[in-house]
């Protein structure tokens, strides 16, 4: 008897967790939490995006104007770089999923186009990394990923701003 | 890095600690449904379960700095939710022995062991019709995966009381299910 009931509950756990709280719960939680922390200039997406772009341009400039790569060919394709790439890709994936769960349409298309361009650039850099690996290419690749994160953060901020007036009204 | 094995969402938790409202919402989205069902099973009323859920999340967010990752975040949050739900229905009501509430438990309740002949809806309905004490112990043990030691700590009862309450709750549940079926 014991086993059949326990087994039944275990097998059908999802069926027992079928209720969902209404939207008011989050609204009230949000109202009761302290105000979101003021975003300092160094947390501002715009500032970081500008800085990332400037750094990217500078890196690309120095990379392409320098005559030759360094001999240490595989040093930059080390585990460190793979870790970085995995880490940022994970963050990007998570943010994309979060945004996708909210919106459809034009803004998403715009973001998609930006990402296509960044993907194309990333492909070129990856090829370059295989042929002539260097610190500069690695930096450019990391910046490419950082720009994506910045774009996604901006999109998330937009979503947050859209939601604010409704929350204030309640 | 130590928390990677314990928490899939450590980065979100860290952002919450830094006051990131978006991260708070993400964490809420991840856990609200399962936590709401825990609340509902204990308090047995949807609006009340929503109030408990709200209190629990506010409490968890405010005390997030005290969460050091010793246990999984879900387990830490669940403990807050269960405590709030129990406080809501009142520990005293749980301490009452259900026999005093007029339940006459038959010692031998047999059920076909080869298969469990009831539907999820029937079992849910039967669980909700149990007295508070039985329902809470049974839910915590069967559905939330607590052992009797943990139930004892949460409900402030002894481990053996938890065991006997669970045994009685289960018998009563089967009895209700059989009544539903044959009655």
Describe what this molecule looks like in 3D.
The complex is a heterodimer of chains A (170) and B (183). Chain A is mainly alpha-helical. Chain A has one domain. Chain A contains seven helices and no strands. In chain A, helix 4 packs antiparallel against helix 7 (135-169) and helix 6 packs antiparallel against helix 7. With 183 residues, chain B is mainly alpha-helical. Chain B has two domains: 10-91, Orthogonal Bundle (Rna Polymerase Sigma Factor, Chain: A), CATH 1.10.1740; 107-182, Orthogonal Bundle (Arc Repressor Mutant, subunit A). In chain B, 67% of the residues lie in helices and 0% in strands. Chain B has helices at 10-17, 21-43, 46-62, 73-89, 91-95, 120-128, 132-143, 148-155, 159-182. The longest helix of chain B has 24 residues, at 159-182. Chain B is elongated and about 55 Å long. Residues 1-5 and 99-109 of chain B have low confidence and may be disordered. The chains are: A mainly alpha (170), B mainly alpha (183).
Q: Main traits of this protein?
A:
heterodimer, A: 170 residues, mainly alpha, 7 helices, B: 183 residues, Arc Repressor Mutant, subunit A, 67% helix, 0% strand, disordered N terminus
Number of strands of chain B: 0
Number of helices of chain A: 7
Q: Stretches of chain A where pLDDT falls below 50 for ≥5 residues?
A: none
Could you spell the SSE succession of chain B in H and E letters? HHHHHHHHH
Distance between termini of chain A?
A: 50 Å
The greatest interface between two protein chains, and residues involved on each side, is: A-B, 34 and 41 residues
Largest sheet of chain B: none
Q: What is the name of the CATH architecture of the largest domain in chain B?
A: Orthogonal Bundle
- Proportion of residues in helical segments of chain A: over 70%
Report how far apart the termini of chain B are.
Answer: 57 Å
Order of helices and strands of chain A: HHHHHHH
Q: State the shape of chain B.
A: elongated
**Strand element count of chain A:** 0
Backbone CA Rg of chain A: 23 Å
Q: Summarize the biggest pleated sheet of chain A.
A: none
Helix content of chain B: 55-70%
Superfamily (CATH H level) name of the largest domain in chain B:
RNA polymerase sigma factor, region 2, helix turn helix motif
What would you call the structural class of chain A? mainly alpha
């Amino acid at each position: 008897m014991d086993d059949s009931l326990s087994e039944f509950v275990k097998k059908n756990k999802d069926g027992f967790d079928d209720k969902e709280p209404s939207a008011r719960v989050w609204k009230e939680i949000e109202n009761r939490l302290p105000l979101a922390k003021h975003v300092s200039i160094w947390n501002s997406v715009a500032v970081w995006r500008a800085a990332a772009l400037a750094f990217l341009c500078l890196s690309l400039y120095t990379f392409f104007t320098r005559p030759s790569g360094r001999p240490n060919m595989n040093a930059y394709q080390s585990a460190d770089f793979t870790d970085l790439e995995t880490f940022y890709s994970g963050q990007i994936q998570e943010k994309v999923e979060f945004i996708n769960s909210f919106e459809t349409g034009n803004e998403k298309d715009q973001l998609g186009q930006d990402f296509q361009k960044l993907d194309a650039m990333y492909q070129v850099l990856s090829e370059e990394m295989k042929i002539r690996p260097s610190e500069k290419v690695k930096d450019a690749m990391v910046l490419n990923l950082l720009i994506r994160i910045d774009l996604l953060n901006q999109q998330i901020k937009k979503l947050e701003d859209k939601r604010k007036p409704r929350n204030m009204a309640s | 890095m130590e928390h990677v094995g314990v928490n899939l969402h450590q980065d979100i938790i860290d952002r919450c600690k830094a006051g990131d409202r978006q991260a708070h919402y993400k964490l809420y989205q991840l856990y609200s449904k399962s936590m709401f069902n825990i609340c509902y099973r204990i308090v047995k009323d949807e609006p009340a379960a929503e109030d408990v859920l709200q209190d629990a999340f506010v409490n968890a967010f405010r005390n997030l700095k005290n969460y050091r990752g010793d246990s999984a975040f879900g387990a830490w949050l669940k403990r807050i939710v269960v405590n709030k739900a129990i406080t809501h229905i009142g520990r005293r009501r749980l301490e009452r022995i259900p026999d005093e509430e007029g339940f006459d438990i038959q010692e031998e309740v047999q059920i076909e062991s080869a298969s469990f002949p009831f539907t999820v809806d029937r079992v849910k309905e039967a669980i909700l019709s149990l007295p508070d004490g039985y329902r809470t112990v049974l839910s915590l043990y069967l559905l939330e995966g607590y052992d009797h030691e943990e139930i004892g700590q949460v409900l402030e009862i002894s481990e053996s009381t938890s065991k006997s309450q669970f045994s009685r709750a289960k018998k009563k549940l089967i009895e209700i299910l059989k009544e539903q079926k044959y009655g």
